[in-house]
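[SOLVED] Need 3D model of a three-part complex

Original post:
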Amino acid sequence: MTIIIDTPERLDTTTDAVSVDGVTRIFSARKRGAADVVALSDVSLTVHAGEFVSLIGPSGCGKSTLLRQIADLDQPDAGSVSVFGKTARRARLDQDYGIAFQQAGLLPWRTVSQNIALPLQMHRERGLDVAARVRELIELVGLGDFADRYPDQLSGGMQQRVAIARSLARNPKLLLMDEPFGALDEMTRERMQSELLRICGETGAAVVFVTHSIPEAVFLSHRVVVMSPRPGRVKEVVVMERAGAPVGSDAVRDDAAFFRGVTAVREALHDGAAAGQGVENR
Amino acid sequence: MSTRSRSLLFSSATGIAGVALLAVLWEGYKALGPAEGLRIGAVEGERGSGVMVLPRTDDVAMPHLIDMLVRLLEPVSSSAADTPLWLAVVQAASLSLGIALCGLAIGLVVGTVLAVAMQRVRIVESAVLPLVILSQTVPLIALAPLVRSWGARIEIGEFEWQNWMSVAVIAAYLAFFPIAVGMLRGLQSPSAVDVELMDSLASGWWSTLVRLRLPAAVPYLVPALKLAGASAVVGTVVAEVSVGLPGGIGRMIMEFAGFVSSDPAKVWAPITGALLLGLVVAGLVALAGLPLNRFRRTELAS
Amino acid sequence: MTAATAVPSAPVVARRRGLPPALASALPPLVLVVVALLLWELAVRALEIPAFLLPAPSAIGAEFARLTPQIVEASVATGTNALLGLVISAVVAVLLAIAASGARVVDGMLAPVVVALAVVPIAAVAPVFYIMFGSSSETGRVIVVAIAVFVPVFVNALRGLRQVSPVHRELLRALNITGWRAVRTVTVPTALPFVFTGLRQASSLAVISALVSEYFGGPKTGIGSQITTAASGSNYAQAWAFVLGAIVTGLAFYLVTLALERVVSRHRPSP
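Solution:
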């Protein structure tokens, strides 16, 4: 299946997709006497156009918070975030990114196609055939027979595909994904990972992907950003080798490079002093 | 026979049996109960002393059910040319129905606007919501006789305040509370994920309201509307009595109660009408809710 | 796979430092009430609003102070009817709920009655009760209250009775406890908090029904009768003072039943 998607002129592809510079985010304590929580401390990160970057780390390391800064769903206390050279807010208002959460977050009273159409209805583009675009997206995520179903009639994996189709609706050059496959069973999860890589290959979008799973991060990413908690900061950035089996194919999972990547990320997560192959120390 | 239709048959059969049992109790007590009722603590030779705990059973206090039904078919007054009683009751109930629906509509609009304001502005919620909840616990209907004094005394230009408007205002007053509270809970019901999704789509306040919050509020609105419908009916009937609005079912109850000694079965006709009015409004509200079922998928499926 | 990271929800409520939370949440409505009363007073004076439309709060307050004994007396009369009706209804509703939870036939027979009672204006039946029990009797009002509050108490009691957990049910079977003893040892204690939730919901309805039934005739003892009398005599501030008395009575009923509910629901999963 090939979907022809026009290369948008509106973006300068040489600009970095995301540039996070010295971002700090502190949540003030709710209860009196409790200490404030430093969710992010002086975090910097660059994501190039078309690059797939995963954020990984234990609970509370601020990876979701970092994603929310990029999406402008939350604002940093210090530092700055720019998306395609604009402020995060401007990028959100211009709809330069698509986002998917761990919960599919579909509106239960809308059918699959109506859910996917939501971003298109919200900001009407002149001359855009919404129905045709929705059909295209439904095909892209392989839900052709389910266009008129309601979310409660779909499995968790199918709901998540709808959410991904929705995030792709406006053909964004940046995808933000917060553990989108976290609630899926392992088999569905692996299939979704392959499909995501295929879709990214077709659209050329950069991706910032939050995950708890080391294999998932290694399988998907060009670079894996390993974060540590209290205070949330970037511990290491591990660059993946992309040799051997074709990117996105299941053969990658049996590849020696894949295992080396897994080991490298695991060591980085567990304070592994011995920097493995392809590890970029900071 | 399918399980579903069998359980429907069961509930209809038992339901009819339940209503029939009430009729049997009525006639049974009338046949067997003490003719003068039962008083506790009555002083010998002193009429009306003590507390009456069981009603009298004579034909004035408790007419036969069949007499009530037959009376409905006869003319309102002794002159044979008069409209039949059932028709007069239906006409009166229709007038009350119109007023109750009018009150319900006003209540819906006011309640919704207030709920949206409370959702939008936090300080409004923290100031108004406790009062709205508190006001549901106090008998605001006590104000009904006071609104009576408004009739025909307010004039704004061409506009003259009508008595039926006083009744509608009270009905609306009672109807708006459940709607405001239910609607607010509904508007606040979308999860953080849903709200963030709308934010990520650069959705404005209005767009989020229309596309997310209002549809999400429907499962909360429908039961609130049922409550509001019942409240509007109570408000209408009570206000008709206190305002003294002629033509409605509330007023007819008071009027016919005066005929009790000469025509005891007639008293029951408008009361039946009031009970029917409540059922009709509940039915209409349920009907109006049907097109909204699309927004109640998750609720109805469970 | 670990659970999702807890993301702090977006709007962080600004805390009023230095104020205890109860006061902090009571402050805005109190301020609103005071402001509304002041505006009301000012409007009545400045715009010379006639008393039939809206008397000034100060006038109502003065009448309330002057008529306190009468207002208390009338509130007690209405409150007694409400209380009697509430208690009678609670007993009947709980017994019927036990029967309905035990036998599907009873449940089915009660269903249409409960549905109908929830939507019909019960107060409208008051006139025939005055006929059946005599127009000088308060019994009719008590019965109106009892019928009106039946639905919330019954519905909550039934929900509570059905709440008995399977574990407890199996425990009873294992201990060979059946019939009324089973009801007493596990079912009633489980259902009790629900019954009191029903009573709390019914409390305001009880006062409202007692008051409204007075609008339909009967002895001129209660607060509803006093409101009608004062209003028809054009003593508007006086009528409003009685309305204030009715509000206090309604609040008292609500707060007492709320306190009872809290006491009964201690150490139990809240309904």
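Edit: Chain A has two domains: 16-96+174-272, 104-171.
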